[in-house]
Each structure stands twice: as C-alpha cells, then as structure tokens.
Amino acid sequence: MRRRARAEARAEDTRTVPAGPDDTTLTEAAEAHASRTTADVDGGSCAAGAAGSLGPRLPSVTVERRVEWPDTDAAGHYHHSTVVRWVEAAEAVLLRRLGLSHLFGSTPRVHFEADYRARLWFGEAVRTELRVTKVGTSSLHYAFTVLGEEGAEAATGRMVIAHSAARATGTTPWPAEVREVLTMAGPQAPELITGTTGGTPCA
Fold this sequence. Notes:
Elements: H1 2-16, E1 24-25, H2 26-31, E2 60-66, H3 82-97, E3 109-116, E4 125-135, E5 139-147, E6 153-162, H4 176-184
Antiparallel strand pairs: 1-4, 2-4, 3-6, 4-5, 5-6
C-alpha cells in the first residue's frame, strides 16, 4: 500500500511540473551559445540568416545614447525614469533589426523593474544591453543592463511585455513566424554613437 502511495505521489509531482514546450528560456539558449560565432552579429539584421541554427538563439542588441539635459534631476545626474526610455529605445532598435516593426502598438508593458547602482552624468555616453530571456505563448521577457562610459553597471533589471492588439481585452499567442524570429534570430548588430566626450557632474 505504501509502495502504491509513493508511486502515486511521484506521478502527481510529474503532473504538477510544467513541461513548458512553448517557452524558450535563457538557460536553454545558453546550450547553443558555444556554437555561436562573431559572424552572427555582422551585417545588421540576423533574422533572415537564422534558419541554419541547431537550437534556440534568443535575440539581443546593444544601443548607445547620451545623458541629455532633460534626463537629469536636481542632483545633476540622470533621473531614474530615464532608464525606462533607454530600455524602450533598445527594444525599438531590436524589433526593427528583427523585421518586427509591425508589433509596435500591440505589445503593452505588463512588468518593469530596475536596480540602480551608479550615477550617470549629463553628456555621458550610456550603453544599454537588452536581451530576450524567455518567449512565452503570448509574452516576451527582457533583461537589461545599463553601463556608463567606464563600463560600470549603472542599472540592471527586466521588462515583460504581452502580445495584445491595441483595443483587445486580452492577449493573443505570437504568430508562428514571429515566434520563430524571437527564438532563433540571435544577437543583432549594435547601434553605437561616436565622438564620446564624457559626462561632467554639475557644480
């Protein structure tokens, strides 16, 4: 009787652990990382050339911006809300690189969080690294890192978006062709600025 109860408990455990066949996570993508070469990020968009990949290759992109005067607060360094703008700017670059500009207006934000680690000053060049970490049935998870000119982390966090039409009352699954790009396109070419001069703390 005890043997049967243990077997039933094991079967119940199996039923309660999601198999997740429709989700691609960063852990799974890491298994394919070893086969990635530097040629993967050359030439702008990688969406069209991803068909030969053997496993999930989640997209990522790096974007540079400057700390503008309106980005600063009374203390002279960047305002916390500026990180949201930088992350969304990186997202816009990524979607354009992937040929998914048609998703603009149908991907509302459902979660955003950030940890602030260092100050960034007016005029400083800032690098935002945005990575897709999970593709759900109708959601997309990003992780981001904001770096200052010296390469130190200024902010880290994550953002989750959903696939939903502008006036829809709920979410809809990613179309198959969109899902393929979101899971297989891999790293995209960065969008960088030139002529960095450094930021200066206000007096």
